[in-house]
Specification:
three-stranded antiparallel beta sheet, Glutaconate Coenzyme A-transferase, nine-stranded mixed beta sheet, alpha/beta, 6 helices, single chain
């Protein structure tokens, strides 16, 4: 059964050098209270794996504002001007990956796969330093799986055992990340008794969830 705690308690064991997956798509489906708690805690030199760096003052963008990120694995940094400048100045390492490839790398990490074969990026700067594999006369890049020490994700509803459902596009990367991290911390809008969620609707089983934090919409 998942344990209940505050956002501050949930992030207190996050230390410098840790890797953290954060759900969301330009702020939608991002665990805002957990991100804010991490900002307030001030932990620096962290590796963030997320779809995008959002915008100033929004979602993951708050960690960019406070310059707590050392390495950023992402697919898009155009919404936050500091992401590009920090990359150019060498203040932050940015690993830019096509969005679909990033999602598959996270899925592979959670599924215990050795990587993903994709033609995306062949003949571009994306292929630099990566292994190429030919299958049925077609060349693919081998993209390695991504895992993390911590996943901070957002769900619409959880039961007290940690079974999760998501809502519309706020689902995005969250269920993939729940399977790819050693410790999963979930911010939810609503917590209900066991049996209140139809089993067929459960997107993330409670076995993957370590901590539940009650947040807002």
């Amino acid at each position: 059964m998942a344990r209940f705690c505050t956002a501050e308690e949930a992030v207190k064991d996050i230390c410098e050098g840790m890797s953290i997956m954060i759900g969301g798509f330009l702020g939608v489906g991002t665990p805002d209270n957990l991100v804010q708690a991490l900002v307030n805690q001030g932990t620096k030199n962290i590796t963030i794996i997320t779809n995008d760096s959002a915008f100033p003052g929004v979602g993951v963008g708050k960690l960019q504002d406070s310059k707590q990120i050392n390495v950023l694995y992402t697919s898009y940094i155009g919404g936050h001007p500091d992401s590009g400048s920090c990359m150019e100045n060498g203040d932050m390492q940015v690993v830019l990956t096509p969005q679909g490839t990033l999602a598959e790398q996270i899925r592979a990490g959670g599924a215990g796969l050795g990587g993903v074969l994709t033609p995306t990026g062949i003949g571009t700067v994306v292929e630099t330093g990566k292994q190429k594999i030919v299958v049925a006369d077609k060349t693919y890049l081998l993209e390695e799986p991504l895992k993390a020490d911590i996943a901070l994700i957002k769900a619409y509803k959880a039961d007290v055992s940690g079974n999760l459902i998501y809502r519309f596009s706020a689902r995005n990367f969250n269920p993939l990340m729940a399977m790819a991290a050693k410790r999963v911390i979930v911010e939810v809008e609503e917590i209900v008794p066991v049996g209140s969620i139809e089993p067929d609707y459960v997107a993330t089983p409670g076995i993957f969830v370590d901590l539940l934090v009650k947040g807002g919409e």
